[in-house]
Amino acid sequence: MTLDDVSLVMMAAGNSTRFCEAYPVKKQWLRIGDDPLWLFATRKLATALPFKNTFITASPEDFSYMQKISEYPIIKGGQTRCQSLKNALQHIQTPFVLVSDVARWDTDIAVVKTMLESIDDDVSCVVPYMKVADTTFYEGSYLQRESLKLIQTPQLSRVKDLRESLSVDKDFSDESSALHHLGKKIVFVQGNERMNKLTHRTDIWQHQKRLNPPCAKIFVGNGIDIHAFEEGKIMKLGGVKIDSPLGFKAHSDGDVALHALSDAILGAIGAGDIGEWFPDTDDANRNADSKKMLQKIYNFAQSVGYEIINTDITILAQTPKITPYKIMMQECIAKTLGIKKSCVNIKATTTENLGFIGRKEGVCVQANVSMRYIDWRFQE
Predict the structure, then answer these.
(1) pLDDT of residue 380
(2) pTM of the predicted protein model
(3) Domains in the chain, start-ordered, CATH in brackets?
(4) CA distances from 24 to 21, 254, 307, 343, 344 (A)
């Protein structure tokens, strides 16, 4: 067997639920220098060993965004790791596949080479493991730790057998458990503690000395939005209800300031525009609350590793008068985003009666935002 017989699949489609219990960033999106962990881990393994093909699974929420970043093909995952792997196997044409979790980013290449050498005609899977050092108690009795194994990834599997094992109506946590369920032969090789999984936020302590911190780049985004006035609607601007006989003509609630800010955030992280996220052809967005739209966009930005440094918003309006509402807008936006008030600035100007704004036909808002990578390190 040669590396031309092996495809690499990197699993990055998880929701990172345990890691994100009190933290906004998914673990696969921790920034290592300028790269997310999923891309860093993939490059590390794929450049060390030239596999025939390399694929990365992504959650449906992250799929499009990962495609914009990755030089490797991205496969849309499912609701479970098992389903994501099934989806990936549809693209595999080699007889063997090496499947690894990006949370086990520090793959020992020597272990992988041992796995490749251990495959034989009657072997379906080669699995790295660690011995259990601690006394283990389970359901009323002590277990013989000499017979226990802590299973790691990557795991090398015969594709034909793996497809067969995943065809049963059962969810498996890894390849070896699926193949074991069908009675296939599994070979175990000694793993390495470097390949221990990053699962909880506190696991960072074990990993951060071997990982570069996020780079200090600043990302700038600009958003602009315009809405005409419409009678019979409540006017919302900057998240605040404005005393006015007019509202904004829009599919949503028409908060032109929050729309501009949403676009600025999306621009800074390179994630499209608000129209892609909330198309006006979707009835679900009719009269939508722009604060919730902004929250969804910023939650996504945080989940992929960004945070706001500051935002500067300029409202161009002949009417209504903005000054009485500036502080309320500042407070509302800061609360919606979970940032300090000092990070939000609101400016307003008229157009000296020029143009559609001067004719009091509508309002234009321009928003600028600066962002940076979230520093995930624990301080010593």
Answers:
(1) 54
(2) 0.93
(3) 3-210 (3.90.550.10), 219-373 (3.30.1330.50)
(4) 8, 28, 10, 19, 20
